[in-house]
From TrEMBL:
This is non-specific serine/threonine protein kinase. CDD domains: TM_EGFR-like. GO terms for cellular component: membrane. Keywords: Glycoprotein, Kinase, Leucine-rich repeat, Membrane, Receptor, Repeat, Serine/threonine-protein kinase, Signal, Transferase, Transmembrane, Transmembrane helix. Residues 1-26 form the signal peptide. Its EC number is 2.7.11.1. Residues 450-722 form the Protein kinase domain. It catalyses: L-seryl-[protein] + ATP = O-phospho-L-seryl-[protein] + ADP + H(+); L-threonyl-[protein] + ATP = O-phospho-L-threonyl-[protein] + ADP + H(+). It is found in: Membrane.
């Protein structure tokens, strides 16, 4: 018994030390401990973070598949949390095509900006992995505060918007995994991340251009996005690349032969794209290749011999092309790939273009020699042309009668050549291609022969198709069928107006095509209008979605409404004649990636579709012009009303009710006016800014047309309102109201 007591007396201190060691050796500093408790609260107490108490030593938590915390020098260097909320690709899909967010995301109280503000206080983090936690909102640019970060994984969440360019400042990043989210737009230039080895951007809405990447990458996954370009030649420099997955996109052009022989390549997945042409039969393949998937493309010819031989360690998938190799049961006929490629072929650098350059130089030299003779010839040409113009004027009507008996595309001379330099300069300023006149064949090419799968809308004015120019950029094609007297001449005169529809706050018109034909006993025309594509949704979408609505505080809403007003001002005064009757409504105000407003579906044509009467706006209908102008002002007022109240308006009664609420707020008290506004903007506006906007809104909604303001008055008041707001914000009033 005495020996037992001696042994216990000796072992007891050892046992005490063993129990207390975790608490005495390594513990997070108090500030980082508080951060983890804040993270638990902001993530709304997920299962992985249950059971934490004030006695929890985070540095000694047993690692599990759902939670891992690693410490060094009493600071957290790794935080991995895995939840059970489905990613967008696995969420229940509603009839509207949207996923069911209410059960999958964190609640509407969640703020991704606040969450990352707290997280960045863990300044020594090297690994941050937040998977399937229901995070939603745009990824904040403050992500660059993680100076030591080597691994960032926020996959399987609901993070949307553009990737912040600040990611490029994370110079230590080795792995970037942003898959299974809702990211959209172009990928920022991350070529400066020279130690990055893994990039996974799969299952988002990114594109269309191939990202600018460092050649240090070992794995690139871009699958299931919206990339639409050729595979760039710079990929040949990726000597360490083992996995290259660009499947389920819209990559086009030929497959570069070098892909199969990259020094380290093992897995190559190019399936479900629009890659075309024939692979050279004698290309070389890396001996380490384990998987090549080129299925579901537009490839023709035979498989290269190094793929057809099928070594034991290599799996080759090539079904649903137009290849002559293998079982024809699983290949399309050749004509399928040829036809489909017409709508997706990229610009071709023709030999004729190079020849024309050489020819131009020769002609320039010859032209210098005969300059004097040319001047004399020009004088003679002017005299002949004037005579010809008079003759053309006399014969114009007779030719138009003959033309109506056959189909023809619009002549390329419809747009006044004097306007081209101006429209080209404007196009360049907006980053748009120059205005052009398309042929019917080109219209068929860019819509894939008006394939029904590309039809995205149909209404009383015609159909709307999605299409692709040969450079891969997405456009919309509006198809209008018209049957009117003297239609061809009227449209020809209006084409100059169409060519001027280039403005920062309009969905710009890129070009047109007119096809005339005989419809039974009447002359008819189809007009195809090629429009800029704005993929980010409408202002109506933002105000209907509580997540997106939170993004639009008062300053953002003011900037958007000013943009709309400037667009309307351009329609009314930027062309001659002005464009009125523009069907202004909140669903026709599109927002690009920078939340710049662009008016869509405005009045394109000088005549109403299916009517013989001129549209409001012609010189001989002055009263109709004024009515249409004031109707545009009223509709702008309705948009302002929805922006202020945050409520979608579907009837005239709702306009009246909301209008009365704002009127009562103006006359009774500031608190009542604030109460009538959208709760999402509370605390973000200066009262005088709100009051000015409400006043001009009510003026726009006057029943008496004569009392409605001009668009210049509306714009002046909105600009004054934003000036008041900016002054209020700069004075530090961020959460209180004046």
């Amino acid at each position: 018994m005495e020996n037992l007591w001696v042994s216990f007396h000796f072992l007891f201190p050892v046992l005490i030390l063993a129990v207390l060691a975790p608490f005495s050796m390594a513990q997070l500093i108090p500030s980082e401990t508080r951060v983890l408790f804040q993270v638990q609260e902001l993530l709304e107490y997920p299962a992985a973070l249950q059971g934490w108490t004030n006695w929890t030593n985070f540095c000694y938590l047993p690692p599990s598949p759902s939670l891992r915390v690693v410490c060094s020098n009493n600071r957290a260097t790794e935080l991995t949390i895995v939840g059970n909320k489905s990613s967008p690709s696995h969420s229940p899909i509603l009839a509207s095509g949207k996923f069911k967010v209410s059960q999958q995301t964190l609640s509407e109280r969640f703020s991704i900006d606040s969450f990352f503000t707290v997280l960045t206080k863990l300044s020594n983090l090297q690994v941050l992995s937040l998977v399937s936690l229901g995070l939603w909102g745009p990824l904040p640019s403050k992500i660059n505060r993680f100076r030591s970060l080597e691994v960032l994984n926020v996959s399987s969440n609901f993070i949307y918007g553009q990737l912040p360019s600040s990611i490029a400042s994370l110079k230590n990043l080795r792995s970037l995994v942003l898959a299974d989210n809702l990211f959209s737009g172009s990928v920022p230039d991350v070529k400066s991340l020279v130690v990055l080895q893994e990039l996974n951007l799969g299952d988002n809405h990114l594109g269309p251009g191939f990202p600018s990447l460092s050649n240090s990458l070992v794995s690139i996954k871009l699958r299931n996005n919206s990339f639409r370009s050729q595979i760039p030649s710079k990929v040949r420099n990726f000597a360490q690349l083992r996995q290259f997955d660009i499947s389920s996109n819209e990559f086009l052009g030929p497959i570069p032969s070098f892909l199969f022989s990259l020094p380290s390549i093992q897995n190559l997945s190019l399936a479900k794209n629009q890659l075309r042409e024939t692979l050279p039969i004698n290309i070389s393949c890396n001996d380490e290749l384990k998987l090549v998937d080129i299925s579901h493309n537009l490839l023709t010819g035979k498989l290269p011999s190094c793929l057809a031989s099928k070594p034991s360690n290599l799996t080759v998938l090539y079904s649903w092309n137009c290849l002559s190799s293998g079982n024809s049961k699983y290949q399309h006929p050749y004509r399928f790939c040829h036809k489909e490629a017409l709508a997706v072929k990229p610009p071709i650098k023709s030999k004729k273009r190079a020849s024309s350059i050489k020819l131009g130089l020769i002609l320039a030299i010859i032209g210098g020699v005969v300059a004097i003779a040319g001047i004399l010839g020009l004088l003679i040409l002017v005299i002949v042309r004037r005579t010809g113009e008079r003759r053309d004027k006399d014969n114009k009507f007779d030719r138009s009668v003959v033309d109506k008996t056959s189909i023809r595309s619009s002549p390329r001379s419809n747009v006044d050549a004097r306007r081209l330099p101006q429209t080209m300069r404007l196009a360049a300023a907006l980053g748009l291609p120059p205005y052009r006149v398309f042929t019917l064949e080109e219209m068929e090419d860019l819509t894939n022969n008006f394939d029904p799968s590309n039809l995205i809308g149909e209404g009383s004015q015609g159909q709307l198709y999605k299409g692709w120019l040969r450079d891969g950029s997405v456009v919309l094609v509006k198809c209008l069928k018209l049957n009117q007297k003297l239609l061809t001449q009227s449209l020809a005169q209006h084409m100059e107006v169409l060519s001027q529809m280039r403005h920062r706050h309009l969905v710009s018109i890129l070009g047109h095509c007119i096809v005339s034909y005989q419809d039974h006993s009447n002359a008819a025309s189809s007009v195809f209008i090629v429009l800029e594509y704005v993929p980010n949704g409408s202002l109506g979408d933002y105000l209907s979605d509580w997540r997106k609505k939170e993004m639009l505080k008062w300053p953002q809403r003011m900037a958007i409404t000013i943009g709309v007003a400037r667009g309307v001002q351009f329609l009314h005064t930027g062309t001659a004649p002005g464009v009125f009757g523009n069907n202004l409504k909140i669903d026709n105000v599109l927002l690009d990636d920078s939340l710049t407003a662009k008016i869509s579906n405005y009045n394109f044509l000088p005549f109403k579709v299916g009517s013989d009467s001129p549209r409001p706006g012609q010189d001989n209908h002055i009263s109709s012009t004024e009515t249409a102008e004031k109707e545009d002002i009223y509709q702008l007022g309705v948009i302002l009303l929805e922006v202020i109240t945050g409520k979608r308006i579907t009837s005239a009664i709702e306009v009246t009710d909301l209008k009365h609420q704002l009127e009562d707020g103006l006359t009774e008290s500031a608190s009542k006016l604030r109460a009538a506004t959208d709760p999402s903007i509370q605390g973000s506006f200066a009262y005088q800014s709100l009051k000015t906007t409400v006043e001009i809104t009510l003026n726009c909604l006057c029943k008496d047309l004569c009392k409605r303001p001009s668009i210049e008055d509306v714009l002046w008041n909105l600009q004054y309102s934003i000036q008041v707001q900016e002054g209020w914000t700069s004075s530090g009033n961020l959460s209180t109201q004046m």
